[in-house]
Specification:
The protein is α/β, with parallel strands linked by helices. It has two domains: 231 residues, Glycerol-3-phosphate (1)-acyltransferase (3-Layer(aba) Sandwich); 163 residues, no CATH class. The protein has 15 helices and eight strands. Strands 1, 2, 3, 4, 5, 6, 7 and 8 form an eight-stranded mixed sheet that branches. Helix 5 packs across helix 6, helix 9 runs antiparallel to helix 11 and helix 10 packs antiparallel against helix 11. It is globular.
Length: 429
């Protein structure tokens, strides 16, 4: 899930901000190769949006717009093609890791992508975003969840950066003119769904997980009946890994909740965090620790010769293990596969199998074929919040960010009819 970025035991090269450009040849190239990438690597063969949503977006052409989609997968390729359908070229903020390959970085920067050093106050990325949005020539895409999380039916708590930058741009425009133009936040939901029967794929995944855990396979059982012992064994093994003793009377759900909290506390201590606000949602705390672990892994070798390098290698090894534990905690957060939706669906079930395979087998699966429904919300003109922002900037940014997050969550739920319910007989027999 949130830990899919690969880190080695060697420090990353020094960070250098990569600015964006729109080069027609590279845009043409991306337009022709993006469908191939999506089909082969992401198993996405269909991107759709209602004519009503497309028409609403075209009315905003030429305006200052910040798009804020959810981020479950390799969504930039989807939105790139969506933008081309509108006749637009977006600008994108993307993690610095995507630019470490010279060829990939060269292509990305020429189709409008610019880098950000996540977890730090990257002033270059922020200044670039303000400049692009102030100019208003092209729209800017920021993923407020901050990570590619592999849960297709869930929206993680939004980070405030997109909202803050948008209001800062409005503030700058207001200082230059008596009546500033509108600056919009545009909520977008991406709904991924399967286009064929996934039962055989699910059975093959269950069999792989059962073999990994030494559990018997019985194809006569329903999907839920086979998943249950897998999740129970994963729970028991991780209680042992994190040295957590189950309390008398706790059921599996209570044991799981306790395990998540204790495991997160152990990781925080290992990373040198003495206090982590328990009032924050668990996903926010996991993301905070992921950002910290990324900073530790990206730091260079200290001076001090061979001895210093040996100590630094040992430190990096410990951080890598702690980061793996963070990914494991993310798996714990999804083992109840009917999350946030009343009807069990194939998509939810496959999400959980994917997270379990990443944890137990170290491999992310991409299943398909899939379609993507792009759902567009009502544009939010941040001028309506400007007076509040001038009086209480931090509180206003927090409130608008939460409203934006809730709107993307609502949009995602509104597309739930694209998901495939699992017949009850298939679940429990």
């Amino acid at each position: 899930m949130v830990g899919i970025t690969r880190f080695s035991n060697k420090p990353a090269p020094p960070y250098r901000f990569r600015a964006p450009r729109h080069v027609p040849f590279f845009i043409w190239l991306a337009e022709h190769f993006a469908p191939i990438y999506l089909r082969r690597m992401m198993k996405v063969v269909r991107i759709e949006a209602s004519e009503e949503d497309l028409a609403a977006l075209r009315k905003l052409s030429g305006q200052r717009v910040m798009l804020t989609p959810n981020h479950p997968a390799q969504d930039p390729a989807v939105l790139f093609l969506f933008g081309r359908r509108l006749g637009m070229n977006f600008y994108w903020m993307a993690a610095r890791e995507l630019f470490e390959s010279p060829l990939q970085g060269r292509v990305f920067s020429r189709v409008g992508v610019y880098s950000v050093d996540r977890g730090r106050h990257d002033q270059s990325a922020l200044s670039q975003t303000r400049q692009l949005l102030s100019e208003g020539k092209n729209w800017v895409v920021i993923f407020p969840e901050g990570v590619n999380h592999q849960l297709y039916n869930e929206v993680l708590p939004f980070l405030p950066g997109a909202t803050r930058v948008t209001l800062e741009v409005l503030d700058g425009l207001s200082s230059e003119m008596d009546t500033p133009p509108p600056v919009y936040l545009l909520p977008i939901a991406l709904r991924y769904y399967f286009l064929q029967d996934m039962r055989q794929t699910a059975l093959e995944s269950l069999a792989r997980l059962e073999r990994r855990l030494g559990l018997p396979s019985d194809d006569s059982l329903g999907l839920d009946a086979r998943l249950a012992p897998i999740t129970v064994q994963v729970l028991e093994l991780n209680e042992r890994h994190f040295n957590v003793t189950p309390r008398d009377g706790d059921d599996e759900d209570a044991r799981l909740e306790r395990l998540k909290e204790i495991a997160l506390l152990r990781v925080a201590e290992g990373l040198g965090i003495e206090t982590l606000n328990p009032e924050l949602p668990l996903r926010n705390r996991v993301r905070k620790l992921l950002n910290l672990s990324s900073q530790l892994l990206e730091s260079g070798h200290p001076a001090g010769g061979t001895y210093a390098r040996e100590l630094d290698a040992a430190r990096r090894k410990r951080v890598l293990q702690l980061r793996h534990d963070l990914s494991r905690i993310s798996t714990f957060m999804a083992v109840r596969w009917s999350y946030d939706i009343e009807t069990p669906t194939v998509e939810n079930f496959m999400d959980v199998l994917n997270l379990l395979e990443m944890d137990l087998l170290g491999k992310m699966r991409v299943w398909g074929p899939r379609g993507v429904q792009v759902k567009v919300g009502k544009p939010v003109d941040v001028r309506q919040y400007y007076a509040e922002y001038k009086a209480a900037p931090a509180e206003t940014v927090e409130r608008v960010t939460l409203e934006l997050e809730n709107e993307v969550r609502r949009l995602l739920k509104s597309t739930a009819d694209h998901m495939t319910p699992i017949p009850q007989a298939m679940i429990f027999n």
